[in-house]
Specification:
The chain is α/β, with parallel strands linked by helices and 335 residues long. It has 3 domains: 131 residues, Rossmann fold, CATH 3.40.50.300; 64 residues, Helicase, Ruva Protein, domain 3 (Orthogonal Bundle); 123 residues, Zinc Finger, Delta Prime, domain 3. The chain has 17 helices and 7 strands. Helix 5 links the parallel strand 3 and strand 4.
Length: 335
Amino acid sequence: MTKKYEQILEDFKTKNFSPIYVLTGDEPFYIDALAEKFDSSLLDESEKDFNQTVLYGRDITIDDIISNAKLYPMMSDYRLVLVREAQDIDKKDWSKFDSYFNNPIPTTVIVICYKYKTIEKSFLKKVDKAGAVFESKKLYDNAIPQWIINYAKSIGLKINPYGAQIIADYLGNNLEKIANELSKLKLNLKQDEEITINHIEQYIGISKDFNVFELQKALATRDVLSANRIINYFDANPKENPIQIVFPSLLSYFTKVIIASQVKDKTPDNVAKAIGVNKFFVKEYFTAINNYSLDKLFQIISLLREYDLKSKGLDVAPNVSNGDLLKELVFKITH
């Protein structure tokens, strides 16, 4: 059967395990988290020596998995066969599992971690009947801030939408990296303490005044002075603010401004829902709508695409720096 992340965690509480779990998909964070849960919690430390086998896809065949799965546990209720990086196993090999599906060993738990892509559907259908399938899907960018809020809560911290958005803009949709940075904050803050902008600057290294989010706000208000201060900081600190992050973020932002401008009933709730942001930020989008005509907004989208290509070396003079490109772009957006 197909199971959600929380349902598999529930299996540990009920001690009702499926004989085989396939953890698959393009988001590795949850696959790794569940693999770690099986590794650390299915067996006691005293049981692992004789009852736990960890295999790596690049080194094995399906026959190796099955032969280990057919062994019976010693002084334990279960035997664990944990297969990491299973995407490296030859695709033609997976059909060899068919006979095992017909008669799985009830005391063996096989966990197959197949990351960065989804295993073939024909195989998943067979697993669906004999065991459990978990599909780990990549989150859309607009879902990342809420994920940060929820994850912070799960580890005993609080964060407001503004702080969550700054982290999302800076770290992107790499959940593992975000989780690591939040765990770093956890080590330095008290239980249930709220993460502030100062905490983010001190422990993650994101400037509270000079970041993509603040650049968006400056452009929304057509505050040329602030926008230029921010891009000068970006130019002086390119590793902290790579242009490869800045352009896509601005493109996403102004695309949402266009969508928001076309919402008929412009209540904060309606606009927030239409563009997929927290209602906390809607006021800023209203400011941008008031400061830019629809024609200008479409021109900005074209400019962003043009300068994104230039940042990659297309149709640009050899001595023009990324900082120069940003300065040109900001001038054309605000004038």
